[in-house]
Write a structure and sequence with these properties.
By secondary structure, the protein is mostly helical. The chain is 65% helix and 12% strand. A two-stranded antiparallel sheet has the order 1-2.
C-alpha cells in the first residue's frame, strides 16, 4: 500500500482484491497475500473515515452575524434525531 494513497484509490484496490478472491482462480499463496493486503487497506480506509468524522463541523452564526465553525457534538445529533 502506498503512503500517499487516497481513500478512493484504496477502495478501488479493495474492490479489485475482492473480485480476485471471489473468482477462485488464484493460488492459495496469492489468496493469502491479497487477503493480508485487503486487511491493511480496510484499516487504512477506516482510519481515513475516522479522520473525516472528526472534521465534521456545523456552521453557526456568532452574535455579530458572522459564520463560525465548531466541531459537531454527537449529543447535538442525538437531540436532533429525537426531535424528528
Amino acid at each position: 500500500m502506498k503512503k500517499t494513497q487516497s481513500f478512493e484509490q484504496a477502495m478501488k484496490r479493495l474492490e479489485e482484491i475482492s473480485h480476485k478472491l471471489e473468482s477462485g482462480d488464484i493460488a492459495l499463496d496469492e489468496s493469502i497475500k491479497l487477503y493480508e493486503e485487503g486487511i491493511k487497506l480496510i484499516e487504512f480506509c477506516q482510519s481515513k473515515l475516522n479522520e473525516a468524522e472528526k472534521k465534521i463541523q456545523k456552521l453557526s452564526k456568532d452574535s455579530a452575524g458572522n459564520f463560525d465553525t465548531e466541531p459537531l457534538d454527537s449529543q447535538d445529533i442525538l437531540d436532533n434525531q429525537k426531535e424528528e
